[in-house]
Design goal:
Blueprint (H helix, E strand, L loop, with lengths): L12 E12 L18 H12 L4 H21 L18 E5 L7 E3 L1 H9 L4 E8 L2 H7 L3 E6 L8 E6 L3 E2 L8 E2 L4 E5 L2 E5 L4 H23 L4 H8 L10
Parallel strand pairs: 1-2, 2-4, 3-4, 4-5
Antiparallel strand pairs: 1-6, 1-9, 7-8, 9-10
């Protein structure tokens, strides 16, 4: 977790996944949608202005530059109609969703930045999870918008990767586990990390949770009174519901 504070505080996100899949620019077999999940614009100019923006500390100057930046984006859209998507996918993130971004393995470029959190937060997304690198950490923290990621980076993504698909199943970039995140799966993130609960298993999982939580609470109470873990666990976990009980 990289924001609001790395590995500190009660930050938690829970919501259905809205997935964004990045591929390398030379990955010719993957789809090339009309729209970027943010926008298919001439990003180099925008990133230059954003870099200047990050180093400004005076609120009035930041607001002024932000206005200039959004005006610039509008002019670029008007002057490049062939690059204008039917709808920018970051603008269609459903309220309450968790944005899950999948980047190719071994990419040093960040695929998510502060402007994305600004728009996601306004769209009432509850947080963002990046299977890759992020940048603009202070901006996310200032927004108090939860962002989880594998690592950080400083370079923009456009030179090496592109968005391929939106709201499609994506594979976790991990050599330790084989996991697929599908649209509308439930994503839960907190101090301990991130969990994906497949939508098809959610009802059963919820039914199993209550007895597990109750057992753990009773074990904790017994341990505080000096009872051994083996005794407390044997008594209370024997009552925990199992999948076959449903």
């Amino acid at each position: 977790m990289w924001s609001p504070k790395r590995q500190e505080g009660p930050t938690k996100i829970i919501g259905p996944a809205y997935t964004v899949k990045y591929v390398r620019n030379n990955h010719g077999t993957d789809p090339k949608p009309q729209g970027h999940y943010v926008s298919q614009l001439n990003l180099l100019m925008i990133f230059l202005w954003c870099s200047i923006f990050r180093y400004m500390t005076e609120p009035a100057r930041r607001r002024c530059l932000a206005t200039l930046l959004f005006n610039l984006m509008g002019k670029i859209i008007q002057s490049h109609p062939s690059h204008t998507p039917n709808a920018n996918q970051i603008d269609t993130v459903p309220p309450g969703s968790v944005v899950f971004i999948s980047a190719p393995a071994n990419i040093v470029n960040a695929v998510y930045g502060g402007l994305m959190s600004n728009r996601a937060q306004y769209s009432s997304a509850v947080g963002t999870i990046v299977d890759g690198r992020v940048r603009d950490l202070q901006e996310h923290r200032d927004l108090k918008y939860p962002v989880f990621a594998r690592d950080i980076g400083t370079t923009a993504p456009a030179e090496v990767v592109r968005v391929s698909e939106i709201n499609t199943p994506v594979r976790l970039q991990s050599g330790d586990q084989d996991a697929i995140i599908s649209p509308h799966d439930y994503l839960i993130g907190d101090l301990n990390g991130v969990v994906c609960l497949p939508k098809g298993l959610a009802d059963k999982a919820v039914q199993l949770m209550a007895s597990q939580v109750e057992a753990d609470e009773k074990i904790a109470e017994d341990l505080a009174r000096g009872r051994t873990f083996a005794e407390a666990s044997r008594e209370h976990r024997a009552k925990v519901k199992k999948p076959e009980d449903l």
